Amino acid sequence: MADSCQMPAWRRALAAAVTDPAELLARLDLPAGLLPGARAAARRFGLRVPPAYLARIRPGDPADPLLRQVLPLGEECREVAGFGADPVGDLDAAQAPGLLVKYEGRALLLTSPACALHCRYCFRREFPYAAQGAGRAARGAAVAALAGLPGVREVILSGGDPLSLDDTALAGLVEALDPVPHLTTLRLHTRLPVAVPERVTPELLEILSGSRLRCVVVIHCNHPREIDAEVRAALEALGTVATLLNQSVLLAGVNDGVDVLEGLSLDLFAAGVLPYYLHALDRVRGAAHFEVPRERALILMEGLRARLPGYLVPRLVEEIAAARSKAPVG
Ligand SMILES: *Cc1c(COP(=O)(O)O)cnc(C)c1O
Ligand code: SF4
């Protein structure tokens, strides 16, 4: 057992995540009436909120937009027509265990099944990671399979969250990818810099800058209040070694307003991040209460285009199983 003093701060933060619904409600001064629903929903997809994210949630407000993203609700257990377990057809896209190739030139590697934060709307909330081998043993096989796909220029480390891997495992993976001749770009999809900003360490920057591959980090942030001074500092550091982009999901009761989305783009830009995608909700079971009607989404986009320079307007897209790219909405 490693001495906890030797454990990096980000590991301690992960271990200190709140996972018990009763504790979350108590710490945030929320009505106990929410507990039965929270417990029922957490049995399907566990609660997980790390301390830095918890600190940004406003106590006493059940409608807080950061809370809504993480609090299990009884509503999640409702069956809603059209909402299923694998809404984007990922299981059909696996070329090797843990390696998804849906789009030309890019391959997505399920690097680690773990996430720092459990987002209630996650389209992979029911993904069978174990069967897909998103673990240490399978990563080598996925890299070998990738070496046999000469059309792939860009490898995307996704998950779960690739930055939940420890530095040794991550460095090993990055080193294994480096010699694959057809690769030019290493992309990471991660919520860690927002959920656990402690994860952005000098060691991490060294791993990413040590690769011959050009590095792109796509963070996941949905609301301007997710970006505090600590997150901004983490992003600025990350920006010294990678191109930074953000993807958000359009979520009812979280960011379905022009002011919020405008603020998000401006605050991201202030931290050196450009908006990339605004995803229409994937219709995963348990997330129906987050859906924003299509007409409303289009009105929001029009509002954003009127207020922001084009480079701060994210692309509104949806994922359609078997389509050749993310599909523009509108
Ligand atoms: C979203 C996704 C990508 C990346 O798509 P971009 O449009 O390049 O961001 C690649 N592979 C899979 C399987 C995906 O789901
Ligand atoms: S961080 Fe990403 S993969 Fe993990 S729960 Fe949230 S949306 Fe899903």
Summarize the structure.
This protein has 330 residues and is of the alpha/beta class.
Structure description:
This protein is of the alpha/beta class and 330 residues long. It has 2 domains: 4-77, no CATH class; 91-328, Alpha-Beta Barrel (TIM Barrel). 33% of the residues lie in helices and 15% in strands. The chain has 13 helices and 10 strands. Strands 1-2-3-4-5-6-7-8-9-10 form a 10-stranded mixed beta sheet. The radius of gyration is 19 Å and the shape is globular. The relative contact order is 0.12. Bound molecules: pyridoxal-5'-phosphate and iron/sulfur cluster (SF4). Iron/sulfur cluster binds next to loops. Residues 93, 100, 102-103, 106, 108, 156, 325-326 line the site of pyridoxal-5'-phosphate (PLP).
Identify the notable features of this structure and list them briefly:
alpha/beta; 330 residues; 13 helices; TIM Barrel; binds pyridoxal-5'-phosphate; 15% strand; binds iron/sulfur cluster
Distinct small molecules bound, one entry per kind: pyridoxal-5'-phosphate, iron/sulfur cluster
User: What is the C-level CATH assignment of the largest domain?
Assistant: Alpha Beta
> What is the residue-mean pLDDT, rounded to a whole number?
94
Shape: globular
Number of domains: 2
Biggest sheet strand line-up: 1-2-3-4-5-6-7-8-9-10
Q: How many helical stretches?
A: 13
The SSE order reads: HHHHHEEEHHEHEHHEHEHEHEE
State the helicity in percent bands. Answer: 25-40%
Strand element count: 10
Gyration radius over CA: 19 Å
N- to C-terminal distance: 54 Å
CATH architecture of the largest domain: Alpha-Beta Barrel
CATH superfamily of the largest domain: Aldolase class I
Major pleated sheet: 10 strands, mixed
